[in-house]
Specification:
By secondary structure, the chain is an alpha+beta fold. A hairpin with a 2-residue loop joins β9 and β10. It starts with 9 loop residues before the first helix and ends in a 19-residue tail after the last helix.
Length: about 325
């Protein structure tokens, strides 16, 4: 977590970043990331913006007045420690469809559910089955993670908006019951829940943080993406053996035909992309698409045959950077 207010001296800021980056490299990671509210303060040190995380504040009473009454088929209750496996499955389903999510094991869920008194959670289940007593353990429809009145994380079995709305209704009612504790406002840090609050009149305010990234060892970082690119090319039916890049003075290519695919610095070959490192990283993560970059003149493709292949390799995916996995998370 980076705050330029703490570092009034450029020399001090540079040294703090250097020490932090060294610790990242010691952990065998080739990409340094940081959240900040002032992107310009980190861009001067080689960091590029990747994604923005917005936090929405809404009044519980106004939410109740705007959201539909939950379907009787949906039952919402506090989660149970015995449901760690089912919670992990719901989390994994959303994580696989996004970029940025931290892998979370069943053991991590056991700890989150059973040993974090500052964080609680609710699950949605099949209401009639639950009342009959025949709802099998683990058959959950959705869950939400809370920290007081902060809604940190949501995942569901489907993209049914009714589930998210039902969760917001239940949490709004709970917030109003805690009125004496000043909890009438809900701070929503999950995009899927925030999307349910469509009316701007319900939004009391927003804050934002930007995720910045810097490569610490570019060849090793790009090699880490090679297996995924090879799998994407094969799945799309493209027999692409090599894919080159020209970026920020560096040339190289992914060797996808090898048993162990890798990135090699040197020549870019015949099939290559010309773009900046920042745009390449956003492509690799799924934050931008090939067409996004072409339309803004930020990308050149060497051959026409590469165009369709590149579209298959770099599919866009929404980001999911849960505050639950961020030890520096503070919602202000």
């Amino acid at each position: 977590d980076w705050s330029s207010d703490v570092c009034s001296s450029d020399l001090l800021a540079a040294e703090l970043l250097r020490q932090a980056e060294r610790q990242v490299q010691l952990q065998k990671s080739w990409l340094a990331t940081a959240w900040c509210r002032d992107p310009d303060s980190l861009q001067r040190y080689g960091y590029v913006p990747l994604a923005q995380r917005r936090f929405l504040t809404a009044h519980a009473h106004a939410l109740l007045g705007s959201l539909p009454e939950p379907d009787a088929e949906i039952s919402i209750r506090p989660w149970r420690r015995s449901e760690a496996e089912a919670l992990a499955a719901l989390h994994g389903g959303r994580a696989r469809a996004t970029w940025g999510a931290v892998a979370r094991s069943e053991a991590a869920w056991q700890w989150l559910v059973g040993h974090r008194p500052d964080r609680t959670g609710y699950v949605a289940t099949d209401g009639p089955a639950a009342r009959r007593g025949d709802n099998k353990q683990g058959e959950l429809l959705a869950y939400v993670v809370l920290q007081q009145n902060q809604l940190l994380e949501y995942a569901s079995l489907s993209n049914d908006a009714q589930l998210a709305q039902a969760m917001l209704v239940r949490l709004s009612r709970d917030a109003l019951e805690r009125e004496e504790q000043g909890m009438k406002q809900l701070l929503i840090a999950d995009a899927l829940l925030a999307n349910c609050v469509n009316s701007h009149s319900l939004r009391l305010g927003e804050t934002a943080a930007v995720l910045m990234a810097k490569p610490l060892d570019l060849p090793k970082l790009l090699s880490a993406f090679a297996p995924g690119l090879k799998a994407a090319a094969r799945a799309a039916g493209h027999r692409l053996d090599r894919l080159g890049v020209h970026m920020d003075g560096l040339r190289g290519q992914w060797v996808l035909s090898a048993r162990k695919p890798r990135f090699e610095v040197g020549t870019a070959g015949r099939h290559y992309l010309t773009l900046s490192f920042a745009d390449l990283l956003r492509l690799l993560l799924g934050a931008d698409t090939i067409d996004d970059l072409l339309e803004s003149n930020r990308l050149r493709v060497s051959t026409k045959s590469l165009m369709e292949c590149a579209r298959a390799l770099f599919e866009t995916r929404p980001s999911w950077l849960s505050p639950v996995d961020d030890p520096m998370f503070v919602l202000v």
